[in-house]
Each structure stands twice: as structure tokens, then as C-alpha cells.
Amino acid sequence: MNELETIRSRIHEIRGQRVMLDFDLAKMYGVETRVLNQAVKRNIQRFEGDDFMFQLTKDETELARSKSQIVTLNKGRGSNIKYLPFAFTEMGVAMLSSVLRSETAINVNRGIMRAFVTMRHALTAVALPAKVEELERGIEDLRRRVDAIMVSQDEILADQNDINESTRAQLDAISTALSELQSNGASDKPRRRIGFVQD
């Protein structure tokens, strides 16, 4: 396994971020984890915010422990975690280079930055075609919906035209009937008066 692959195998996905754990970083820098964490604590203002560094919960530590080896303190029948490790994001790892100034730390940091960039490119390369396919499916679905709306609109307009023609024919028939009634009803006979007749 080359250096890049070794580093990539130590990058974990935790809380939706790609991070490296303090004990892995310490091992790579050739220092004790305690020394690395002391250097961070002395420069804690550089690491403020979860986008630089955060401490794992017990559950997260157990999950990371299943993938890596964390220093444990054995007591009796079980084994307890000695400490909850810190997770450093890509920006946090970059910030470490300003805290640990040894030549080893600088060289290791370059390799780590390359690993993060390689992973980002790999994920983008995988995600992009999937996004394009999803977009094409969405466009096709939208096209089908627009076509269905157009057909429905044409049907509505055709029905409306039928109603208009039917209504027009009915109005013409009523108008003709009224005209006939008026012409037939007009006679010279005097009409009988309606209402009360007074003596």
C-alpha cells in the first residue's frame, strides 16, 4: 500500500465530514498523541469551530475503534477507552502544519492534503455522472408532465368550443321561438283585461 492509500485509509467520515483522528495523525507525525494534543491546546484559538476540530463522543469512538486501533486502558473484565479522541477536518489538519513545524510534519501534511484532494476528486467524479443522470430523468419527467398538461388543455379547449357552439345553437333556437311567438301572438282582437272589474 503506497503512502497516499495509507493516508486515505485513515480518513474517516464522521458527522458528515471527512476527518483524521489525533492518534493516527500523531503516529504519522512521529510524536505521541499526548504531545500532539498539547500542541493543539496551546494554540486552541487556531482550531475553534467544528469545521476545524471536534472531540468524538463515546459512540463515535467505538465506531472509529472498530476501524482503527485506539489506545485503551484495560480494567478487569472489559476494556475502557482511555480518552475520547479529537477529529481534525481537512482545514484542521492544514492548521496543524502551523503548530507542528518539524520537517516530518510538513512532509506528512503535504501527503495528507493530497489525499483529501484525491478523495474529493474521486467523489466528484462518481457523483457528477449520477447527478447528470438524475437531472436528465428530471427533465424527461418534466417533459412528460408538460405534454400531459398540453393534451389536457387541448381537451378542455375542445370541450369549451363544443359548449360554445351548443350554447350558440340553443340561443339561436330561443331567439327564433320568441320571434315566432311574437309574430303569431300579434292579432287585431282586443285583449281581455286582466284584473278586478269595477261596476
Secondary structure topology:
Blueprint: H1 3-9, E1 11-14, E2 17-21, H2 22-29, H3 33-42, E3 53-55, H4 58-67, E4 72-75, E5 78-81, E6 86-89, H5 90-99, H6 103-185
Antiparallel strand pairs: 1-2, 2-6, 3-6, 4-5
Helix pairs in contact: 1-6, 2-3, 5-6
Strand content: 5-15%
- Fraction of residues in helices? 55-70%
Round the Cα radius of gyration to an integer and report it: 42 Å
Please identify the structural class as seen in this structure.
Answer: alpha+beta
Shape: rod-shaped
What is the spatial order of strands in the main beta sheet? 1-2-6-3
Total strand segments: 6
Return residue spans where pLDDT drops below 50 for at least 5 consecutive residues.
70-79
Q: For the terminal residues, how far apart are their CA atoms?
A: 129 Å
Order of helices and strands: HEEHHEHEEEHH
Largest sheet features: 4 strands, antiparallel
Mean of residue pLDDT? 77
So how many helices?
A: 6
Short structural description:
The protein is of the alpha+beta class and 199 residues long. The chain contains 6 helices and 6 strands, in the order αββααβαβββαα.
What does this protein look like?
- This protein is α+β, with helices and mostly antiparallel strands and 199 residues long.
- The chain has a domain of 125 residues.
- The chain is 64% helix and 12% strand.
- The radius of gyration is 42 Å and the shape is rod-shaped.
- The termini are far apart.
- About 5% of the residues have low confidence.
